[in-house]
Amino acid sequence: MTNLEIIHKLKRRLHAISENSTNQSRAGIDFLRFLGVMLILTLLVRGTAAATTPVVTVTNPYQGTVSQSFILSGELSPGAGTPLTLPEGLLIEQVLVQPGDSVTQGQTLAVLSVDDIDTAIDQLQASLEQHQVQADQLTNADVADSFAWQQAQQQLDRAYSNYQQIVTENEQAIASAQEALNSARKALSEVEGREPQRPFEDSYWEMATPEQTETEQKYSDWKNELSNAQAAVQQAQNDLESAQQTAESEQGNTLAAAQSAEDSRNSAQHSYEKEAADLAESNRSDLASAEVLLTQIRQKKQKLADLTALKDASGNFSAPADGIITAISLVPGETSSAVAGLLAAGEQSYTLITPVTSAQSTLIQSGCTISVKQGQTTGSAALESIESDMAQFTVSGSQWKVGTATITVTTTSGESGLCLPATAVNSDNTGDFVYLVETKNTVLGAQNVLIRLPVTIDERGDGVVRVSGALDGKEQIVSASSKPLSAGAQVRIDA
Questions:
Q1: What's the DSSP call for residue 322?
Q2: Can you tell me the distance from the alpha carbon of 314 to that of 475, in angstroms, rounded to the nearest whole number?
């Protein structure tokens, strides 16, 4: 029988009692009895309800961001470091360090065979001498012979000089002949301008008069003078033509000689330039070979210095500086390689490598806070790279040791919204929802009743979710309950 059924039964009973009362006194007594019974029943119902009502913890939505964190475990080691160089091919007698060891400058890392060092020095010195001779020969560049070209150029210069001289002389001769022709023509013109009176020809007169005789003589003299002037002009014309023909002939011959000399010069120049180009190419090849040899010589000299230093140290190979041995490639009984190992400076950054899942990889690359812990030592780290299922972090500081360390990665989206504890959100086949507590008045008084309110989960984090929906941040949302809940149920809020 429920509490409501009990109450209704009591009401019916009290109503019957009231109807059967026959007098005022009896009614008063029954009323008092009614009040007492009601009080007892109310206490009984409330006690029963209190024993069966779920007790809930409530919270208010708050404005905030959601963060996620996870812990990784990886191997901490110093950075790669710098190579420890060593002459190759030397017998290793002892190795005194291993990866992870801290060393100081001058500390012996390994002991090498002194006999092998002596042998290597002798072989290297002989090789150096041979290489130096070869390099000296290759660096003496050959030079093309320019004598034939220079001789041809000199002949060409003389030929053109001779041509220019002939041209000048012929121009002068032609000019002189032209001048003589001009003078002869002028003289002829003057003579022609002085033509005297012609003698009178009259056969009628058998004897000439003195005047006729004089006229005839003057005319005869002029005719002679005219003939001489005409002959002089013709001679001057002939001399000019002769000078022109001579000039044409001499200049043609000397020009042909100059052109022939130029052809010879061009041929000699071409031969010289080809020889010079061939020699230059050969010299370049020789110089390239010499440069290779010189590089080898420098390397061999450095190796000789290293070998000599090892010999002086009785075969003890020492650390060049303080630091941490991150790798060692020396094995007793075997021969040395060019790189004996790696030495990292003690103050440099460390590397932490750890496996990650695909989801963790995505979160790490989206931006996060990364903290590192090794024993009691803590610090921060920065993501260096993520490849496949491995992540590499850089850890600063010199307080770390080679070995295992843990990484705590905390990510925050940075997007703000209403947040609730993850326990406050429930789910069923209709979706996500929360229980909202509202106070309602009932026959038993004020009661806390549950209201189902749908929400959307925007982001999940460490025990917190960011939600959206019909919330304003003032609601009382159930975050925990002593019993299963349902919409419309009465609950009691844990104090």
A1: S
A2: 84
pTM above threshold 0.85: no
- Mean pLDDT, rounded, for 369-379: 79
Confidence of residue 64 (pLDDT cuts 50, 70, 90): confident
Ranking 42-46, 124-128, 266-270 by mean pLDDT, the lowest is 42-46
Dihedral of CA atoms 208, 211, 214, 215 in degrees, nearest 10, equals -90
pLDDT tier at 357 (50, 70, 90 boundaries)? confident
Say what angle helices 210-312 and 114-139 make with each other, to 10 degrees: 180
- Total Cβ atoms within 10 A of residue 10: 15
Would the pLDDT of 20 be above 70?
no
Q: What is the mean pLDDT of residues 263-289?
A: 75
469 strand-pairing partners:
455
In the chain, the amino acid numbered 477 is I
Q: Fill in the DSSP letter of residue 424.
A: G
Q: Around Cβ 424, how many Cβ atoms within 10 Å?
A: 21
- The answer to whether the CB of 126 falls within 8 A of the CB of 304 is no
> Residue 289: is it exposed, middle or buried by C-beta count within 10 angstroms (0-12/13-18/19+)?
middle
Comparing CA positions, the residue from 481, 494, 369, 472 lying closest to residue 426 is 481
The strand pairing partners of 72, in sequence order, are 407
Kindly state the greatest CA–CA separation across the chain.
229
* CA proximity to 397, closest of 415, 371, 379: 379
Which range (105-109, 169-173, 369-373, 395-399) has the least confidence?
Answer: 395-399
**pLDDT over 60 at 257, yes or no:** yes
Burial of 46 (0-12, 13-18, 19+ CB in 10 A): middle
Q: Compute CA distances 300 → 10, 125, 132, 171, whole Å.
A: 116, 8, 11, 76
Exposed e or buried b per residue across 140-178, where buried means at least 16 C-beta atoms within 10 angstroms of its C-beta: eeeeeeeebbeebbebbeebbebbeebeeebeebbeebb
Q: How far are the Cα atoms of 95, 164, 194, 204, 208 from residue 201, in angstroms, in the given order?
A: 151, 61, 21, 9, 10
Please count the other Cβ atoms lying within 10 Å of the Cβ belonging to residue 334.
Answer: 11
Average of pLDDT values for 287-313?
81
Tokens representing residue 9 in the block: 């039964």
Cα gap 478→489, rounded to integer Å = 12
Query: CA–CA separation, 70 vs 371, rounded Å?
Result: 11
Residues 75-101 have pLDDT tens digits of 777 666 788 888 888 999 999 998 878
